Amino acid sequence: MEDSTLSAQWICHDDNKRKFLEALRRPTGIKEPLFPILVPFLPISSPVETLDWLCMVELENNLPAGSVNSARWVKPVIHRAQNQNCNAQHDTCAICGHEHRTKNCSSYKTLHCVSCEVDDHSSNDQHCPTYEDKCATLNAKHPESSMMYYPTSEPWTQVMLPPKPAPY
Ligand SMILES: [Zn+2]
Ligand SMILES: [Zn+2]
């Protein structure tokens, strides 16, 4: 992944590493580099703040224990719209749109996008027009969502992503 490569290069600079460590308040040093990632389409019933959930994510994705350091919602729970609760109380497959976890999907090449209600791409398609639309709207409303890191009071987290190149 391009972002991970960039972050890995970034963390290799001693000055950045020092700032990163200061931000983490861990004087002992970095064992593994940490990368912030954004996960779209997470059911809002996911208990992301719990250790159990982090372990479950590691297990489900065959990640080494401890590789998922922490998780939080981009949008704080308290700011959720009331009607957001009915959106995702169950797991909706990001490939075929049926009610099961995406990793348990057994539909062979049966695509369905829940957002667009069409069958020519899956819900987790990066080029889903509804997804791209929502991202554009969100980015316009919340500049922090086009930032490389979750912005905190630390200046190094307040870095904007370079603008997307125009499609040819
Ligand atoms: Zn499925
Ligand atoms: Zn779509």
What can you see in these coordinates?
By secondary structure, the protein is an all-alpha fold. It folds into two domains: 30 residues, no CATH class; 116 residues, no CATH class. The protein is 27% helix and 0% strand. 8% of the residues are buried. The structure holds zinc ion (2 copies). The site of one zinc ion has 7 residues, from α4.
Summarize the structure.
Helices cover 27% and strands 0% of the residues.
Strand portion, in percent?
under 5%
Query: What integer value in Å does the Rg equal?
Result: 18 Å
* H and E string: HHHH
Termini separation: 22 Å
Distinct bound molecules: zinc ion
Model regions low in confidence, pLDDT < 50 over at least 5 residues: none
* Structural class determined from secondary elements: mainly alpha
Biggest sheet features: none
Total helices: the number is 4
Estimate nothing, just give the exact number of structural domains: 2
The helicity comes to 25-40%
- By DSSP, the count of extended strands is 0
Mean pLDDT: 72
- What general form does the structure show? globular
Architecture blueprint of SSEs:
Layout: H1 2-12, H2 14-24, H3 51-60, H4 129-141
One zinc ion (ZN) is lined by residues 113, 115-116, 121, 128-130.
Features:
globular; about 0% strand; binds zinc ion
